[in-house]
Amino acid sequence: MFRILTLCLPRRCAALVCALLLLAAGSVTGLAQDSATPIASAPSPGAPGIGDPYFPLLGNGGYDALHYTLDLDLDVEAGSILDATATIDAVATQDLSSFNFDYRGPLIDAITVDGAPATWTRDGGELTVIPAAPIANGDRFQTQVRYHGTPEVDDDDRFERGWWATGHSIFAVGEPAGSDVWYPVNGHPLDKATYTTIITVPEPYEAAANGLLTSVAKTTGTAGNPSTNTYTWENRDPTASYLVMFHAADLDIATEEGTDGVTYIEAFPHDLSQRDKRVFADVPEMVSVFADLLGPYPFATMGNTVFEDTTFNAALETQGMIGYDRSAVREPTVAHEVAHQWLGNSVSPARWQDIWLNEGFARYSEALWAEAAHGDEAAEAAIRRQVGSFATASRADESHGVSIGDPGPDRLFSEAVYAGGALVLDDLRDHIGDEDFFRLLKEWASRFRYGNATTDDFIALAEEVSGQDLDAFFADWLYTPWTPERVADRFPLGGTPMP
Ligand SMILES: [Zn+2]
Prior knowledge:
alpha+beta; Immunoglobulin-like; Neutral Protease, domain 2; five-stranded mixed β-sheet; 23 strands; globular; binds zinc ion
């Protein structure tokens, strides 16, 4: 995400819930561990969280989601879902008596598991599905959830709101969570999956989503029913749930095959200004620059779409189809979101605590793009802006005393994580030298491609590549709180404030 303003921050962490989960996990596994001979365990409920220390209820345990087919019929002007079916193919990782999805969405009409009617309960953001028969560890199973209505959103929480309806458009974006407002999901980056997204909208609207547009089917309206367009988008690349999106609006969707094998897509509103369109003209060159630094572009598509302005007021690096508010259409932001496709989307955080691996890298990539496109002075100016921003942020409540490697769930997207994270990498480059630094970047994007990694993984790789002991370097940068005094000591000349 490219942050512009700081509004409210996520507030899902509940230490009590975390403790209860640990107790529950202990009671489930204790029996088998104490026994010398394996015994058949009774099917048990999958855990309601995947184990993220910051957000204990994000994601779910007991299964691995493989593919989602999301079929939504939308009333764009009402901002609602007329009818939806989410089909989730998964494989059980334990004997399951029940399992959970993260789901804050509208009314559920029916659920089946492998075609048989299932029962369910809802508690906050947790949907518990009880299949007619238990599911054996290792078995594949398919859940279908049918639902309809208008997602209820928290207007004050732009990070987890997830669903944005403007009267002329609907778009879905949210980080660290938000997908669970419009479909049932194992909502944590640890469980990536592929997607088929089928969106039906009335004329004259169109719909963009992750992946390749594989078909558009039209129906002719009848009395009382408008003509509709059904867009099918196939995303065959493993995708974290916070990177899943769609945008239904009055769009022009243009697709072009790049000479690099990537499909470039523009899904722009009809009235997008020439100035804004020109900003996106650099995208293929950005992909080329980052491919040189980080290895081949990881996904089938590089799409960009522009939303109507809302309080979202940001851009999000949604995979293969990046979404921008109009206020976020700026060259450094576009470079930032393009770089995220390698750094965050392909290599994703294993825990939300590791968010600096996304945002520090993407912010530093703005300087790498400036260096490649405009030369050393532009790159130095980009770094000075980070110093200025880090200093300003450290004096503000939102970032005061933040540890970049452990900011806490309420300050995940604080400016100190972004600007400070970029400065960690700039200092690391000085410390280990250009040759090792760029080998490290490329190896990072390659070794953890399509997977997840932690800060410890990054430190270990930096030490492996450089041959240096970097524990003290990272302890200082990542785990020592950045008070204004510490920032002023480290950067006595300051920088230039962010524009
Ligand atoms: Zn970002």
